[in-house]
Amino acid sequence: MTTKSLGKSFGKAFGRQAMFAVTTAIAFGAASAAHAKDVVIHAGTLIDGTSTATRSKVSIIVKDERIVGVQDGFVTPAGAEVIDLSGATVLPGMIDMHNHVTGGGSRDRLRGTVEQAAYQSSWNVNAILNAGFTSVRDVGGATELVVALRDSINSGLIPGPRLTVSGNGLSPTGGHGDPTNHMDPRWQRTNDWKLGVVDGPVSAIRAVRELHKRGANLIKIAASGGVASPGDDPALQLLNDEELKAIVETAHSLGMKVASHAHGKAGIDAAVKAGVDSIEHGTYADAESYRLMKERGTYMVPTLFAGQEIYDVAVSTPDKLPPTVADKAISVTPKMRKNAINAYRAGVKMAMGTDQLGWRPHGENARELEYMVAVGIKPIDAILMTTRNAADLLGKSGDVGSIQAGRFADIVAVDGDPTQDIKLLQSVRFVMKGGKVYKADGKPLPLD
């Protein structure tokens, strides 16, 4: 019996659920045979990541790691393996534009080790991939660790999403990214401990160049204070205009984009004027901020997951947080929600990012989409924010974020219609990355 006829037989017997059962055998073969044959995916409903429109009964033709064709109707090229998702909604692999994949485990900066973080991170990236996120931008992690993690995934050593990494975020002394905030000053650390702490344009330029040398893909900065960091004020601009200009100009000259953490209006507006590519959080943005962002094409990444994550801890167990953090979390989180819908209604370009802090296990990234829809963003627009828009902000629209010929075969599927129930994206049943199937029938496949 052929793969296609087998799929039809199971479909008649069991209906929609059978489509994923059929893929299990196919997917295991695809995973172990290293793209030995061409593959065609029969998609019942397709959200292709290029527009708000959906398509029915579509064939996606995959050769090696890329899509070579998207055709109406169910076709089967000679010799191709068929993955029958004819009862599913198929969409591009999702993209999380603000994550910290090294988070989780010990949160004690004096007792947690980089070795522990490395093991935790390998678990995190596998969970994120199996949640349907095939690309992730990590904005603020130990440089050597995230670069090694990215390269290990790219070489096939460990499973995980395609990583774009910033390494250490840049922040002034005492700012959101200073790891020594609220610590006994008698502790001594190497220069790497404060690699991301910059004071003055010269210091900032040197840090950007050092991060580039060490393999970072983009630069993350903290233009304002933050919520999870003790002792700083999220409403204040902490990197001055000269520092911001020096960072952006240097990064752009090296072909690197700049993502700016910014809660306060002063920090947001200054960062946008300096030319950053995205504002992360954007809590206290106002109409003028949105106007500036639209004029310059700056993205907003609202990170509602992180706000809710730390808010829940602040309300239920505030003693788990450093001094002042709980109060900030309770104050800021409602404003983050308001900013997300205001930016959306103002027409600001938006991309999805969770800013997972590690209070909850990694792999729950799609909760961000639920929170975005809850504040009033249309489900299809939220989906485009985690596919098309995210790819544009990454600068990789030619590779990811849509199901089109020439793109990587990064493809996920769910039961039901996520444009009607966005929570369905929290239960991805099928995951393909680069033409290789990692999850089928709702279960991760055995690793090679």
Automatic annotation (TrEMBL):
Keywords: Signal. It comes from the Bacteria. CDD domains: Met_dep_hydrolase_A (cd01299). The keyword Cell membrane does not apply. The keyword Coiled coil does not apply. InterPro entries: Amidohydro-rel, Metal-dep_hydrolase_composite, Metal_Hydrolase, Metallo-dep_Hydrolase, OTAase-like. It holds the Pfam family Amidohydro_1. Residues 89-437 form the Amidohydrolase-related domain. Residues 1-36 form the signal peptide. GO terms for molecular function: hydrolase activity, acting on carbon-nitrogen (but not peptide) bonds. This is Amidohydrolase-related domain-containing protein. It comes from Sphingomonas sanxanigenens DSM 19645 = NX02.
